[in-house]
Amino acid sequence: MEYGISTKCLYGNGQASSPDASGAISFPIYQTATFAHKAVGESTGYDYSRLQNPTREQLEKVVASLENGIDALAFSSGMAAITALFELFEPGDHIITDCDLYGGSIRLFDNISKKNGMVFDHVNCSKILCGDEEGKAFETLVNEKTKAIFIETPTNPMMNVIDICKLSRIAEKNKLLLIVDNTFLTPYFQNPLKLGAHVVVHSGTKYLGGHNDTLAGFLVTSSEEIAGRLRFIIKTVGSGLAPFDSWLILRGIKTLAIRMERASKNTGRIVEWLRCQEKITKVFYPGIPESPGFEICKEQAGGFGCMVTFEVETKELALEILQKVRLIQFAESLGGVETLITYPITQTHADVPEETLAANGITDKVLRLSVGIEDEEDLIKELERVFYE
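and the corresponding structure tokens:
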């Protein structure tokens, strides 16, 4: 049965019944490393928790249903998921990525994947696809070794929006995998598989978990062939999510819909406030009508999300803001119920080369907000105090 998104957050497309005779409403934590067999050939369907575990399996079914995929795989972190994904490729393979990505992804590609023989082009996909001759500039990057395109949309931290449908047509024409990191908007607002992507990536640590209390990562696909290859990889490299962490993410997903609605409403109010402040020189948010990605995001997503980046007048002001916040907390990460402020240049993007930071506009004056579910008036009062007291 195909449920609506809020119902899927509770059950996936499955039933609301207990998995055993206990009648438990909360799916149990199967905290076991191995499973007994009655005899040779008589398995319960589970052998060893590195291969699969009932709690992780239930979580994967829920996430697959949310993203409209045929399979989802749960990993110990978002970076573990991306690392496993790149085991699909071989030395000499060429990957095109957007230039504005989470710093951990850039670090992986530039230091591990390149060491393993992969070749990368990092380009601004939000700009290169804006020409009237659709995709021609982008396609000049494609060669016989090109295997995949990897993007985030909106991007982290500069909130650029990339046209997934346009990229999917280019990928299809050139027989490339299109991989989309959907962490910022979540399946509640955006479904890249429906728009033509082949693999969706999530840092489940963020909005899916939603409470800043555990790490997780996901790969979701609509391809049987890709799913089979990824299943072989996850059991081989052993980076699957543990049972207790799987249960925490399952619990977090139950409230995904209402958290995204509340946080998105708060974000709209905060963006309005930020845009009126003279000390703020730029606000980056796809929900601003003047934003270059506004129309694309409105077309391919059901909302603009809860992340906003802004630039202040001076480095000194940025540092003062980080020192003065109290209700809003100065911390890395995003997507939890608490509002967090991050300094990308020393936190999420500390290992990114200076020339890349400069090209992307990530300076010592740029701050990133992950808006939570507090009362919006309390958040506005906090900002007013931080800026003007």
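(Above: one complete record from the training split.) The two ends are 55 Å apart (CA to CA).
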